[in-house]
Amino acid sequence: MHIxxxxxxxxxxxxxxLIQVGWFLTDDKASILFEPPYRMRxxxxxxxxxxxxxxxxxLQLESRYFVINCxxxxxxxxxxxxxxxxxxxxxxGDASPVRGNKLRELLTLVNENEWRIPNxxxxxxxxxxxxxxxxxxxxxxxxAFGHYRKHPLPGTIFGGRFPIHIWPRPLMWxxxxxxxxxxxxxxxxxxxxxxQFDGFDPSRSVKLVQAEKTPELLQYMEQISGVVNYVNQxxxxxxxxxxxxxxxxxxxxx
Length: 254
Fold this sequence. Notes:
By secondary structure, the chain is α+β, with helices and mostly antiparallel strands. It has five helices and 15 strands. The strands form four sheets. It has a five-stranded antiparallel β-sheet, with no helix packed on it. Strands 6-7-12-10 form a four-stranded antiparallel β-sheet. It starts with 6 loop residues before the first helix and ends in a 10-residue tail after the last helix.
């Protein structure tokens, strides 16, 4: 049974406690590689009371972000084949911990005619992380700006912002490769990107809970999956999506 889940219904759900956000992996294959999201917290090597790590403003900012770690080791090089078609080269070769066929399943070079900037390739990494909520909550995916990289990325990542209470979808990591003369190096266990969650009241904190993949949730996701391949403005479908949304998405995992 489905209900018409409207913004007005969501507003009635707003409370004074924590905003509860559920997370789960859409695919259980090799799930041990995908670490649970965790709250951002800078490391301090001093216990001084005036340390920046104890600053209330710093603590407030960091409490708003959750970290997704990179699940794999990648060392990639951009090139073009003899016909000029963009291609990825696994610079680690036989030493790569990720098999070539699996690498092709995980990584996708976006079609060149869809690049936002001419001659700046877009690379996408598929991930199984998905977030849901039972009140109005928007997720913002952004660069791990607080993480120092020994090998700076040769480009920029770009995320997005969408409502997880009506649009549950697995995340992906998208990268624009500006300096193609440099390799792209990602290390397993290092921060890949941050997630920020916003409700109506910015003073309320967020609590992440591992959610159960109920049949109702999976059916709902199946109904909305893939629509990006058929329409240009998927956000225009939110009104229709609300009509088939289950009454409750977040169920605690067993």
